[in-house]
Each structure stands twice: as structure tokens, then as C-alpha cells.
Specification:
This protein has about 90 residues and is mainly α. The chain is built from 3 helices and no strands. The chain has one domain. Helix 1 packs parallel to helix 3 and helix 2 runs antiparallel to helix 3.
Length: about 90
């Protein structure tokens, strides 16, 4: 009995080290060869891990998008301030 949770933990650890494409390929193979309860359980675990990876990827994309948007705003602010300073210097001359 105690070896089953260890095997599940090992399996989950293995799936967590795979990237999205490896997991997708394995899931496709298991869908084709799904002929025993253990494979069904492996398939469920792999799909759960894939879902987690998709969520993590989406969070990273959102964070990067937010970061790029913020840096663009900062760049625009700096450019605007420089333009105002240049205009002020022109008026002083």
C-alpha cells in the first residue's frame, strides 16, 4: 500500500519536469494506448500537470505584457519630459 503513493509522487515529479510539448505528446500516446486503469490514472495526472503548466505560462505572459506596457509608459514619460525641457530651453534663448 505504501509504495502506491510513492509511485504517484514519482510520477507527478516526472511530469513536472517535462515541458508542455513532452506532456502533450505523452498524453496523445496514452489516449491511443489507454487499456488499463493505471494508464488512465497516469493520463489524469498528466492532464492535471499540463493544465498547471498552461496556467503558469499564461501568468508569465500576463506578467511580461504588464511589464512591457509599464516600460513603454515610462519611456513615453521620459520622452515627454525631455521634449518639454527642450521646448523650455528654446523659449529661454
Amino acid at each position: 500500500m505504501s509504495s502506491e503513493p510513492d509511485n504517484l509522487q514519482t510520477l507527478i515529479s516526472k511530469y513536472r519536469t517535462m515541458d508542455i510539448y513532452e506532456l502533450e505528446a505523452n498524453i496523445d500516446n496514452w489516449n491511443k494506448e489507454n487499456d488499463c486503469p493505471i494508464q488512465t490514472q497516469c493520463l489524469v495526472i498528466a492532464k492535471n500537470e499540463l493544465e498547471i503548466k498552461y496556467k503558469e505560462r499564461q501568468e508569465q505572459i500576463e506578467l511580461l505584457t504588464k511589464s512591457l506596457t509599464s516600460s513603454s509608459r515610462a519611456g513615453r514619460w521620459v520622452s515627454s519630459v525631455k521634449a518639454v525641457i527642450k521646448q523650455l530651453l528654446k523659449f529661454k534663448k
